[in-house]
């Protein structure tokens, strides 16, 4: 796994020669090759770090550069005499990896690139999860062992899940779903009511019954979990949790739903404890009461059922209004938390990313709101990585703007947000320097709408043949969604994107941009005064790969009805190794 570590401030590297390369071997977790890399900085200083072949593969993927790595050879060399195979592989890789690094250092855009300087600054620790089969010594693997190891490496227990909103039944009937694509489906929503029970939308229980039956009939083992709450359905949560009597009533209602509909568990989508969310009552005792509820629900459902919670990038707010610093007791009762890494910027005339992978330039106004930050914040508070599911949006935002870049991410962050990010994510002591891109920070005239992840009711696309603003719009006209969320499939259907050779490209006057600071795409059309922030096959693949490499349980999407068929889900599954 390639991890970004802090580099020496201001240092770039200019050369790395083959004569300065050496290698050794390590025995754990399996015998593998370590390369010593010596690089000369622009100030004449030298660094010497140890790297594995898989570290270079990860760097190459993160940079998206056009350089060439020496090819993967392990299954080929396992046919050859052992010692000769080792020598041949090592010699080939020494030459190829040296050439690759020097090709990067010869290009000005990479000489001071944060990813590359981090790579050359510090050796990375290795765990059993980090070692790739391609790092192994060929002499330690027979052909049979190599094939078995490859099969084990390809095997996965990662989870690919999705939310199935009840309003999607018209466009994606339960009987039409390919259940092999989903390990868990979260059926959204039931809602808590004023009596601490559960209420349902008209017709939703009938849809739930169909979903459960279709999933079971598919034979794919897909679990169906009832999600309670949502952005517009969290009004009565605080009251339902406020006393032992109310919690008992609510637990009984949840257990009754599981038993009545043959469900595999309950998902609590409270948006948000000790916070108003969409204008909800809340209390400083919400987080403590929520733990009591989870404890009672686990006791009532037993260990075989799933209990999950949709959450923001940071742990629940405690009585003091700050994120909890210890959530291990919650993890003991929960199966997973579903991190809603989306709606980070929302609708703004200064566009920003909907779902950042990270604060990759150190300039975000919401540094606590990204996939990488969420992972750090939850794990630092004691929630195991293996119980985290990373949320991926299958929608974007249509914004009225003439911007041609996502300049919104460069807004100066409030001091409190920066301090919290430095301490909890970067783990920097006060006064220490953090890495940052050499980018100009501009001033802007609008504030972003930061929702912290929100499962809101989506506006359904028009039925085939319907007469409405979308149906009448000229190709590429997204005006009907201006200032709102737009499903990915509608970006395609309305002609701003088209699929070509398995990927999506700009269409009908739009230009496609890529924001390196958040690792997300966007579309812009100055003539239309339109910007679209969204996620595509590349950005979703990157976030899913990050979830896998960081040891998370997997990913979920909001929501499956917004996919273009199964195109995005297939990419996510592939990046999870499924």
Automatic annotation (TrEMBL):
The GH18 domain is annotated at 158-578
Please give the PROSITE patterns that the UniProt record associates with this protein: GH18_1, GH18_2, PX
- List GO molecular-function terms, semicolon-separated: chitin binding; endochitinase activity; phosphatidylinositol binding
One GO BP annotation is: polysaccharide catabolic process
TM stretches of this protein? none
Q: Which SMART domains match?
A: Glyco_18 (SM00636)
* Domain PX, residue spans: 1-131
* Keywords recorded for this protein, A-Z: Carbohydrate metabolism, Chitin degradation, Glycosidase, Hydrolase, Polysaccharide degradation
What stretch or stretches form a coiled coil here?
none
Q: Which reaction does it catalyse?
A: Random endo-hydrolysis of N-acetyl-beta-D-glucosaminide (1->4)-beta-linkages in chitin and chitodextrins
Q: Name one GO cellular component term.
A: extracellular region
The entry sums up its family as follows: Belongs to the glycosyl hydrolase 18 family.
This chain's protein is named: Glycoside hydrolase family 18 protein
